[in-house]
């Protein structure tokens, strides 16, 4: 189909994808006085939901959206493969179950209120050519019509399969964990506690979860390194484990979803006239697969750098790389530690995972977990536990000594074979 000229005219920044990362970047850029167009390929922002919606208070603060909270979470129960478990409970809320679609809509509305033009049913299709003063891109509208425009900057916030990353040759293989989740309108279980299920037969490579939805039901899912086995098959096994635990099966699932979670670091998240944020940049916590906080924070940092770069008309890779450096300064150590811990974790056998649960339960470590537990920075509690528990160090003899180094000493991961890679 022939391309028609853009009715939008010149925009400073084209933000591709209206998820939490895209809407945050768009909002910040518009507030800094730039003309921003944000496009979303789906007809409705926030739909389909592809998320369990468990976040820290930091997300609520970044979003300024307490209304999306459905339930406060104070506790967690971790089950080993044999369903022996350990419980942690804090006095105060430690996490929040949110209305994820509501969050996305709130963030897009906030961006629109700041002057962002938001267009749904519009897809980033291709980078056509680099031009003086901008980069020509092709968008596809609802009926497939093509439109070209020349933004000065492109922000790729288009999720795990980022077309922007591909178009700007920033895509590199990272591990993509297949995930499968369903919502159950009715479920037994403690509405203030999330449950985590470990085990090679349930979720090799990450874990399974049962998360209360705040309305009497639960979100149940797995993310697993599903080599040769589908994430759905692991999810079915998790359901069988839950049926044993609750003494009856969960019934009538709704909103089944299959999606991918990127784990790893991209060597480059910026190029000339382009920045990637959120899942498009694999800014997902390696130990949990959660990416809302990290993606939104990255978007803020990206927008801060990009706003200055637009103002100075210097959209070189070198200038935009200030964002990558800022992200690394703030979250780089946590990512390096978490990626390393994950490599250790994925090598544990079911017997070792059961032993891990036993040590956590019997070692009097509950207080440490409650004191240091932070879903955005899980390596902190891991390091403290390793310092306090010789039993844990004996169980995990894989060069974990690096973790007990003093805080602030930086972290260089000891040698260990890299985990599995997928494109
Ligand atoms: C099963 C599952 C459960 C999860 N649970 C949690 C959780 O409990 N807590 C947590 O913090 N994280 C969780 N995550 C991760 C979290 O959902 C992501 O990290 C987060 O959504 C990333 O935000 P984003 O804005 O980068 O990308 P997305 O939310 O993926 O948004 C990208 C947007 O871009 C749009 N798009 C894609 N391609 C194009 C294109 N070519 N043109 C235009 N638009 C396009 C998409 O439609 C989408 O709206 C979960 C993920 C999965 C799969």
Descriptive notes:
The chain is α/β, with parallel strands linked by helices and about 425 residues long. The chain has 3 domains: about 5-50 and about 100-170 and about 265-335, FAD/NAD(P)-binding domain (3-Layer(bba) Sandwich), CATH 3.50.50; about 70-95 and about 175-260, D-Amino Acid Oxidase, subunit A, domain 2 (D-Amino Acid Oxidase, Chain A, domain 2, 2-Layer Sandwich), CATH 3.30.9.10; about 335-405, no CATH class. The chain contains 11 helices and 20 strands. A hairpin with a 2-residue loop joins β19 (about 270) and β20. The two termini are about 30 Å apart. The structure holds flavin-adenine dinucleotide. Flavin-adenine dinucleotide binds near residues 157, 158, 279 and 292.
Features:
423 residues; alpha/beta; FAD/NAD(P)-binding domain; 7-stranded mixed β-sheet; 6-stranded mixed β-sheet; 33% helix; globular; disordered N terminus; disordered C terminus; binds flavin-adenine dinucleotide
CATH architecture of the largest domain: 3-Layer(bba) Sandwich
Gap between N and C termini, in Å? 30 Å
Provide the number of structural domains: 3
**Secondary-structure-derived class:** alpha/beta
Radius of gyration: 22 Å
Most strands sheet = 7 strands, mixed
Uncertain segments are 1-8, 413-423
